[in-house]
UniProtKB/TrEMBL annotation:
Its EC number is 2.7.11.1. Residues 4-46 form the Leucine-rich repeat-containing N-terminal plant-type domain. This is non-specific serine/threonine protein kinase. It is a single-pass type I membrane protein. InterPro entries: Leu-rich_rpt, Leu-rich_rpt_typical-subtyp, LRR-RLK, LRR_dom_sf, LRR_N_plant-typ. It comes from Cinchona calisaya. Keywords: ATP-binding, Cell membrane, Glycoprotein, Leucine-rich repeat, Membrane, Nucleotide-binding, Phosphoprotein, Receptor, Repeat, Signal, Transferase, Transmembrane, Transmembrane helix. SMART domains: LRR_TYP. It catalyses: L-seryl-[protein] + ATP = O-phospho-L-seryl-[protein] + ADP + H(+); L-threonyl-[protein] + ATP = O-phospho-L-threonyl-[protein] + ADP + H(+).
Length: 359
């Protein structure tokens, strides 16, 4: 039997950094084999040259460090080590894995900085580092990866500002940065990311106004800036937007009537702010709305009858405002409604005959 090839030897060298190795890996990763390609758990090779092209050990419960030898697997295209207990730093040597297209290290205990060298992964389209204990700033080099389409950095301890070169991400579709300690503003250059479909920036310390350049994101479907500060909602040509959340953002002033331009909007959360004035009648033009929550604000006046025209609406929460007048009787005949909360207002008159849960 021939000696184990170099890729196999590299994989065995990674084991030396692991403190808990599942039995299935211990038994199948065998030094007596000539290649890891036939039966090694989590290993896939190309059919021709027997090079390791994929390492997928997601959810195996491995603990220990990710050794720098990982970069010696010169033909790797995908690495998925998610949902384990890896700790310590992400090795900077990963930046030498020049063929890598997918990197998933999410749901582990990695600490320290995101290596600047990951910006060298020019073929990368998917990066997921969420739910670790990563700190310091987001390297600007990540936003120079030309074909990056998905990046999950949420639920870490990242600080500093959103990198100034965010507008260079011409192919980015999904950008999740929520659950960190990011500060500063959302830069107008984000409007250059015209492929963006999802932006989650909630649970940070961002300030300022939403840039008007968001109008250019015609494919944007999900946008969440909840639990930041002083982010007034601003809308324009984001015609694909299906969900917008700005909860606990210290918003003030009236709800803009421009919501009527968002014909695909299904979710609108503006709860726990300082919004004032009347609920705009134009909300009745958002025919796709399923969930409308504007509770815990300072809204006044009557509930507009146009709300009854939202035939897809299932959840309506307007509680803890200063609403007056009668409850529109049309709400009682809206067969799609499942939950209505109008409590803690100053409403008068009869309660419609709801066949649902009402508070």
């Amino acid at each position: 039997m021939s000696a184990l090839n170099s890729d196999g030897k590299t994989l065995l060298s990674l084991l030396r950094h692991w403190t808990l190795i599942p039995p299935s890996i211990k038994s199948s990763w065998n030094a007596s084999h000539s290649t890891p390609c036939s039966s090694w758990v989590g290993v896939q090779c190309d059919g021709k040259n027997q090079f390791v092209v994929s390492l997928n050990l997601s959810g195996y419960g491995i603990s220990g460090h990710l050794g720098p030898e990982i970069s010696h697997l010169n033909h790797l295209r995908t690495i998925d080590l998610s949902m384990n207990r890896f700790s310590g730093p992400i090795p900077s040597e990963l930046g030498n894995s020049s063929l890598l297209e997918l990197l998933d290290l999410s749901v582990n205990n990695f600490t320290g900085q995101i290596p600047e060298s990951l910006g060298n992964l020019y073929r990368l389209s998917y990066m997921s580092l969420y739910r670790n204990s990563l700190t310091d700033t987001i390297p600007e080099s990540l936003f120079t990866i030309p074909h990056l389409q998905t990046i999950y950095l949420n639920n870490n301890g990242l600080t500093g500002t959103i990198p100034s070169n965010v507008g260079n991400m011409s192919e980015i579709k999904i950008l999740w940065l929520y659950g960190n300690q990011l500060s500063g503003t959302i830069l107008p250059s984000i409007g250059n990311c015209t492929s963006l479909q999802e932006i989650y920036l909630n649970e940070n310390q961002l300030v300022g106004s939403l840039p008007e350049s968001l109008d250019y994101l015609e494919h944007l479907a999900y946008f969440d800036v909840s639990s930041n500060m002083k982010y007034p909602p601003a809308f324009g040509n984001c015609s694909s937007l299906t969900a917008f959340a700005a909860v606990s953002c210290a918003l003030s002033g009236p709800i803009p009537s421009s919501f009527d331009q968002l014909s695909w909007l299904t979710i609108l959360y503006l709860s726990d702010n300082h919004l004032s004035g009347k609920i705009p009648r134009e909300l009745g033009n958002c025919k796709s709305l399923v969930d409308l929550r504007i509770e815990e604000n300072q809204l006044e006046g009557e509930i507009p009858s146009q709300i009854t025209e939202l035939k897809q609406l299932r959840n309506l929460s307007l509680s803890e405002n200063h609403l007056t007048g009668v409850i529109p009787q049309g709400l009682g005949i809206n067969s799609s409604l499942e939950h209505v909360d109008l409590s803690d207002n100053m409403l008068t008159g009869p309660i419609p005959s709801f066949g649902l849960e009402i508070i």
